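USER:
Working in pairs, take the chain set out below, taking as long as you need, and write a paragraph about the fold.
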Amino acid sequence: MTSNLKHLEALIKLGDYLRHFNGEEKKYQPLIEAIAKAKIANSWFTQETVHKAIKDWGNALIENRIVQWLNAYTITSKTRPKQVAIILAGNIPMVGFHDLICVWLSGHHAIVKCASKDTYLLPFMTQFLEQESGETCFQYTTEPFKKFDAVIATGSNNSGRYFEHYFGTYPHIIRKNRNGVAVLEGTESKEDFLNLGNDIMQYFGLGCRNVSKVYLPESFDLDLLFGGLYPHAEVIQHAKYANNYDYNKAVFLMSEFDFLENGFFMLKKDPSFSAPIACLHYEYYQNIEDLTKELQEKSEQIQCIVSNRSIPNAIPFGKAQQPELNDYADGIDTLAFLESL
């Protein structure tokens, strides 16, 4: 448990604020303004996706869930807080907020570099925490880091190599590309397929927890996947998504790839985990034990596994973008890392 009750209470208040957000009351005006700016800065940040992120964080930051999470730790007060440099991705709204609340609860300080197209929502959240507690923890910058003691950086495989080169001598957590996968057994319910559709399509499939690859039993009816995706058909009305769909479809056609499509989404048989926007890769399996072993061997490429099957660490359909507070990105315990500094 954390020794800083002010920080804990402020986080609980933020959860309550987000959970009851309705976009109308005067007290929500600062958040409404931050949302409006975020939508202008990043066309992937729609009203729906931003409100989903707010709702999910509100539901995560309930007092008993926070306390249950923190009970696994003994977080001591810091007489000399460390300066933790944090580099955030910007693929979905508020991505990286978990890193920020971990620093907040740890008692250290953060120097934060937001993604260029996500510079409004997270500063609002941290400002709320600081105002409620009366304490300062976060500093935002667009300049190169100068004085810091540790690093938490999230990016692509290419940027990950850059991070390792420049920050490798500091205590660090460096995250690279990962994807969500699903393993089906052929007996899933209609609700399971609808939930899987959410796991694939929420945030336009841009998150590292979105399912981009499915493993199917032989003779599986691919129309069942399209059925689960159908409620998301209006996504093709989003200009940026439609442009990506048209482009990737044209590439597949010119390359003479075999694929199936339904007017807004494509299915392509492919062994790789990472699929382009508007596409899901699939592969058939014969033996679940062999597949489980393969997934374990490739665990460094996988962020989460969605399945009804008895696979280690598998989560239910529909939960890919609703991780628990103790479900750390890349399986690296951020709070334990911060407490070790």
